[in-house]
Amino acid sequence: MTEKRIKIIYLITKGFWGGAQRYVYELATSLPESDYEVKVVFGEGDALEKKLQTANIQTQRIKSLGRDLNLSRDLKTFWSLYKLFRLEKPDIIHLNSSKIGVLGTLAGRLAGVKKIIFTGHGWSFNEDRFWLVKKILILGHWLTIILAHQTIAVSRQVFDQVATWPKVKNKITLIYNGIETINFLSERDARLLLLPDKIEKFWLGTIAELHHNKGLDILIEAFARLIKSLLSSQLGWSLYLVIIGEGEDRGRLEKLISAKRLDGRIILLGQVEDARKYLKAFDIFILPSRTEAFPYALLEAGYAGLPIIASEVGGIPEIIPDAEYGLLVQTGNIAELEKSLKYMITKDHYRALVGPNITKKIKADFSFKQMLEKTIELYRSVN
């Protein structure tokens, strides 16, 4: 007799494409079809839905589900979740992001879902917010962890920030994000497709959402200082900053670039499909984020063998533990970032050292195979 497949519903607040959405997509499309029946539920945004439908994964949109607090919409979302769980009778619900975490764990408990998993992709109280809002967010995260049967932390830093909270002992598991083999374009091919008139230049680059949390304004300020200090050299005239990504801060960043008179030297390329395959176009990768958990972009840049400069925030030091693997800078410190950029640009031997080192570390410690196996083990062990 064939064993009944395990029904699992993944839920995430936004259907736009980002790190948490990629996490959901890769788990949903990688579970063995013979063992799991999968559905993904989300709110606003359609990028995730399109990718899942291409992979023949069931999807459902809850129109009232959004990131911002709205009592009327949130109550409607809660009722929609409760009805969904009662109708579908899933064996497991796996929740991702703060809003769906609170609403989903409560609805899941009331609906009698047997296994409720929540993944902490980072805690929203780490963002720059009013103190009272932070206290409310902390309470919301604590309730989510209490109501979930198990919480996955994607980095040691994410784990440690909540591990000492009341009544959460043995309810949190560390499972690092992991990545699969990536088929990168060569440096020349990637540059030909992105900016064919700048193939011979020196590219500083990043892949990031155009959002305050990503610290791109800090990077632009540091780059402007760097250019000014190197104007007398040929190297200074060959430097370009290329930013792949889109987001709500585009207008603000464009104004900053114009104010620094760096139009044409700092290029906002916008959204690029499967951006990671273009990573080898960069000579150096920079991630100047104000807050992070365990960023896929950094894992991918390391896998590509790029020299990396990143903020010393969140789980990033777990990827780059010391200077053997890249350079870390204090979050928001423009002068320190400029100094690190200048060092990395001018020290060819150092770039040649850290690139292969970080690639070895990523392949050894942060594979998707390890992540998937540990997650499936958790699905089967939670009571």
Mean pLDDT: 94
CATH domain topology of the largest domain: Rossmann fold
Q: What string, H for helix and E for strand, traces the elements in order? A: EHEHEHEHEHEHEHEHHEHEEHEHEHHH
The number of domains: 2
Number of helices: 15
Strand content: 15-25%
CATH homologous superfamily placement of the largest domain: Glycogen Phosphorylase B
In total, the number of strands is 13
Name of the level-1 CATH class of the largest domain? Alpha Beta
Structural class: alpha/beta
Low-confidence stretches: none
Distance between the termini: 25 Å
Shape: globular
Helix content: 40-55%
Taking Cα atoms only, what radius of gyration do you get, to the nearest Å? Answer: 22 Å
Assigned CATH architecture of the largest domain: 3-Layer(aba) Sandwich
Order of strands across the widest beta sheet? 3-2-1-4-5-6-7
Query: How many strands, which pairing sense, and closed or not: the largest β-sheet?
Result: 7 strands, parallel
Structure write-up:
With 383 residues, the chain is α/β, with parallel strands linked by helices. It has 2 domains: 188 residues, Rossmann fold, CATH 3.40.50.2000; 179 residues, Glycogen Phosphorylase B (Rossmann fold, 3-Layer(aba) Sandwich). Helix content is 44%, strand content 17%. The strands form 2 sheets. Strands 3-2-1-4-5-6-7 form a 7-stranded parallel beta sheet, sandwiched between helices. Strands 10-9-8-11-12-13 form a 6-stranded parallel beta sheet, sandwiched between helices. Helix 3 packs across helix 4 and helix 8 crosses helix 13. The chain is globular, with a radius of gyration of 22 Å. The relative contact order is 0.11. The mean pLDDT is 94. It comes from Candidatus Vogelbacteria bacterium CG22_combo_CG10-13_8_21_14_all_37_9. This is Glycosyl transferase family 1. One of its GO terms (molecular function) is glycosyltransferase activity.
